[in-house]
Amino acid sequence: MTRPPSVSRRLVLRAGAAGMVQVGAVRAEEIRGADPAAAAAAPAAEDDAPVSLVFAGDVVLDGWPGRAIARGRDPFAATAHLLRADIRLANLECVVATQGTASDKIYNFRAHPRTLAVLRRHIDAVSIANNHSGDFGRAAFTEMLALLDRSGIGRFGGGRDLREAHTPLVVERKGLRIALLGYNEFMPRSFEAEARAPGIAWSEDEQVEDDIRAARTVHRADLVVPVMHWGWENDRTATDRQRDLAQRMVAAGADAVIGGHPHVTQEVELHRGVPIVYSVGNFMIDALDNPAQTRGWVLRLELDRRGVRSLRTDPVRLDRDGVPHPVRYAATPCWQRGDGAVSTCKAVGN
Prior knowledge:
Elements: H1 7-15, H2 28-31, H3 36-40, E1 51-59, H4 63-70, E2 87-92, E3 95-96, E4 110-111, H5 115-122, E5 125-127, H6 137-151, E6 154-156, E7 158-159, H7 162-165, E8 169-173, E9 176-184, E10 199-200, H8 205-217, E11 223-229, H9 240-252, E12 257-260, E13 268-271, E14 274-277, E15 282-284, E16 295-304, E17 307-318, E18 324-326, E19 331-336, E20 343-346
Helix pairs in contact: 8-9
């Protein structure tokens, strides 16, 4: 894949780094409806009080899942228990809007705003850094930003301009501040945010590294988790490009790296003790091409001030309508701090 340089855009961001704020971001306590005053008074996170974070893969709320919601059904119901955590995340692989014109692409995904009420029951924040957020143009993308904000769903990896797209969503739980960043590096690049135009955050190595460092120095995050939309569709193994960038992110201070886009699961590995999940696969989408695309993971991380304490991948299988269901007794990657390598565990109780 080609990644043309964008030096001037990086300079714009660096020049304004000292004045960056959480544009468009909301604290997770507010997302979940907790009392902000009580949250502010919460004690600092300790090693015996980990923060749980789950990440579901690609979620497309048009097609059958969208029609199910229109009929009053909840396509998340079968897997709702897998999404119970302090922080619940997903990749929103569609635009949510009522306007716009479809792009000249094979697949264009646009969901109705009514889907957000159901999404909000199960997900606290979404990455919008992917190759479908701009399927119906900038006006539809801007409408989605407003709809997400009004619904109380946090967002990262995109915004109303370049600076906002690269500003992390900082979620605070149990006194632990976790910065979430999102990046896309799969064409078309025309979806990228500009200095005065809305869009997504594009992945450029030095800018990603700058953003990770700024998440700590400017936004006072304790932990930083970048979410990547990368790799090649249907590849079961990460590319050299993915590995190289993941290692650069870890060197810049990432505490975990989470990936998606290939629509299939890829391997999980450690670099300097930091877990890298190259692709969690699909979670909810009815545009399925092959059996491998029907299998995905709900990633679960336990976090503390030192980083990731443990990692688990709960397997799901998508039915012909693109709706996920738990899979029991499947061996999937797992890890805990102190282990020298990632191993496999069987999902018995999900």
